[in-house]
């Protein structure tokens, strides 16, 4: 999660049947499923990403210049603020088919606090299929996402079209060539990745994530998958000082990976690179109140002693 404003998130757990109230219409909607993700204890209806007990997972991404919201409540639809979408999806639905049907009855209202938060969402379930939900000028659009990768603006179709500029990039070795009898060898390995952009714009980060995901070796288990996910995500992390905005330094405040089949949430923060994990099934799914854990922000080091 990259942002210029300090998020100071908690790991939040919301039990089954706990009523999540929208700040738009103050309607309380009891959770069908227990959910867990990154957010703040003071506002359990707001998560930036997370998963639920039946294997649905969702993450928020920034969508400036593209996101459009309504300014009127529609009594025939579900009215939510954009920041409430993750918790609403996770607490109510189990599959992508359910999500697709429900999202078409969703009315997103500009934040009542007058903080415009342009967002879109990537959603997956235990099948491994992925969709992207984007609030466009002509209404909410749902895309099937065959690559399973998403970034900030532009919209998904733009990112997919842009891949056509990079179809020659691949991880295979490039051999030497001869020109007029002179042999020219590439400088080291990785010559076929030449042209893969290394900047911090969303289009470039999208491409690097797609390349890493498609090139990774076959994964045998969850441990291998998590290690691979964090290595791929490290290629798109923004270190402090590399990107400045009007609000301040934009950087990767935390990195997370979720396993739908086991209900496990893995994460690390900018200030603590130790990967921490939490399993939703270790929590009391039928407890009465949400619970939050402060995120360790001091770097943990392993020590080798004689």
TrEMBL record:
Keyword Hydrolase on entry: yes
A Gene Ontology molecular function term of the record: choloylglycine hydrolase activity
Pfam families: CBAH
InterPro entries: CBAH/NAAA_C, Ntn_hydrolases_N, Peptidase_C59
SUPFAM superfamilies listed in its UniProt record: N-terminal nucleophile aminohydrolases (Ntn hydrolases)
Superkingdom classification of source: Bacteria
EC number(s) stated in the UniProt entry for this protein: 3.5.1.24
Keyword Nucleotide-binding (UniProt): no
UniProt keyword list: Hydrolase
Domain Choloylglycine hydrolase/NAAA C-terminal: residue ranges: 1-291
Family: Belongs to the peptidase C59 family.
Protein name: Choloylglycine hydrolase YxeI2
Gene, per the UniProt record: yxeI2
